[in-house]
Amino acid sequence: MADGLTARRSPAVRALALAAAFFSIAFSLVAPPSPRGGATPPSSITAVIVRAEGLQLVAAERAVRLGGGRIGLPLPIIAGFAATVPTARIGALRKLPVIAAITEDGAAEFKSDYDPGTDPFSMLNAATGTGAKQAWAMGATGAGVDVAVIDSGVTPVPGLSEPGKLISGPDFSFESGLRNLAHLDGYGHGTFMAGLIAGRDAGSDLAHPGASYLGVAPNARIVNVKVGAADGSVRLSQIIAGIDWVTAHRRDNGMNIRVLNLSLGINSHSDYLGDPLAQAAQAAWRSGLVVVAAAGNEGRGPQQLATPAIDPYVVAVGALTGATYATLLGNRVADFSNEGDGNRNPDLLAPGAHMQGLRVPGSFIDQRYPSAVVGTRFFRGSGTSESAAIVSGAAALLLQKRPDLRPDDVKALLRQGAQNLTGVSITSQGSGALQLLPSLLAPVPGKLATQTYPVSERDSDEEDNGQSAPSHWSGTTWTGTTWTG
Model pTM? Predict the structure, then answer.
């Protein structure tokens, strides 16, 4: 009877049984003796991201549990999950046939700095210098385009408080269970980025902006996906979970998410194909989202771009500094902006030094850097975070005017329209400084723009048909302007 049952088992069940047997043998050889009482010391627990081999996700979860681990956030976009596991058992887990990779669930950071510096560059000057103001006159304002901001949350301060400007998606941060903090930006970074992308003061006139605060795409809508806590703490798994949700739900309930802003990252020394955050960003790109990522703030040197900007499919943005941003005259690459390694360089530059952004009174950065406060509403920030946000707004303008553009088309047009800085290496500037008008007016590149870099194994197994992918987050529910669940 036992043999008959075994013969009828599915391949997945047989693989699970094999993995469990292998796992038991491996761990009997490597497991350290348990301390008195049988508990594993907290210091010997490691937070990891586990990616399953092929379709063996359930088997991989089972193997982790058998080894004394605990399953955390599901990460279906990379066929994996977050977990905490006994440190001494990671090596044995990696040898199992159902597990493709185990990497540390490390801490990411938001790519900004805050200091007195010089006077902030106004958003009006930045909009003028990049061509956004001229684009508004042509009717390109971002209307109808949603930009997802995976960050520390977004607080609806003036400039982001008008009805219809902001939708809050799920909160994956450590504060998600606290009603007074969920979705809101206790750190101050996400609100700053949202304002650069799509801020708009009530009653402002795009034809005569005057003293109004206006982001690059003032009529675009922000979809807020909070991953960072009030102290800025965030893990890679939380960011990947946010990317998963945006990719799966970008067209739900009247949303039209076309751009994903990632003004964050982590220094990585691995190839992009083996990096879980880069893998998630690439999957989002190949599903039809324009993914814009910060190049990093470590400055000149041999290091590569931060991840996920290291992935060649996404738009990697470095920071530009200059006299006013109103013109390109005298502009240069900011000293803090990461340069590439010759194989993967920034795709282009955008204003990113001493930018004027929306302030969240009482937030972490507001209290930590009081000298960066400008008046009562604004804050001064520098970094490739700011530059990425500017380019996300630019992408929204392109997609409003040309809704049929593919992500590869948008990237090609942004690079094609950028203005080269004289005497600056391609590893530092990529294609040059953002200039929107040439990008708006150029012919659609079509097949010539198609990127053909090697893709991650997870991506290569899936058809790139632009349809929403299955997601664990299908249980979330819509309650007006906020997702719950």
Answer: 0.88
